[in-house]
Write a structure and sequence with these properties.
- The protein is α+β, with helices and mostly antiparallel strands.
- It has 2 domains: 59 residues, no CATH class; 152 residues, Four Helix Bundle (Hemerythrin (Met), subunit A) (Up-down Bundle), CATH 1.20.120.
- Helices cover 50% and strands 17% of the residues.
- It has a 4-stranded antiparallel β-sheet with strand order 1-2-3-4, with no helix packed on it.
- Strand 2 and strand 3 form a beta hairpin.
- Helix 3 packs parallel to helix 7.
Amino acid sequence: MCGNSDCKRETTWSRIVNTDATAGGHPNAYIAFSYTAYVCVLCRKQILLVLYRKLDYKDATSRSVQKIGQVPPQSIEIPADLSERLGATADHYKKALVCRNTNYGIGAVAYMRRVVEEKTDELIDVVIELAQTYGVDTKTLESLIMAKEQVRYEDKLQVASELMPSALRPGGVNPVGQLYTHLSVGLHGKTDDECIAIFDDLKADFEYVFRNLHVQAQERREFAERVKNRAGKKI
């Protein structure tokens, strides 16, 4: 992902500079480093520097290199639309991905759980809005609204998942129920490897819920408004 504020897109990096530089001109080959510079091909503004040192010198020639860093530092970016949906909790999800990629499964699941905890009320609001556009009965809507009054987020998710209309279950699968089921598995006593398996199994459902349910709610609301306005016009 390009880090330029005017770009922020997945990009290809084109090499513009490749030079041998040394750390303070130090003659020791183990301290000397080289760098390669790249530019984003989309905006031509963001520069990426990759620092490396040469290894296995033989006859003044290096046969291999080792990366020692980059500027800006390496980070895991999430799609812009998902980041927008997650809001302030997007940083938690980025940390979850970092933990996953470094095999810290317990940390990955814990950070994902934190996102769901902080977004549960908002998620229920989206489910209520969608349910209204599908003409769900008043009793079910009232139960969904009351779910927000539950103290524990697990209880909130359980109620919302049980009451989710069938129209909101792609392929008959309840995405909110999937979240509830996975997150009900406690972190205590689980190994990193076991938590990685949980995280990998949950990731697609997590992103589907937070990316798509918002979009569906907005699209159905706009559709209902257009139909209503059209019905009120004289032909």
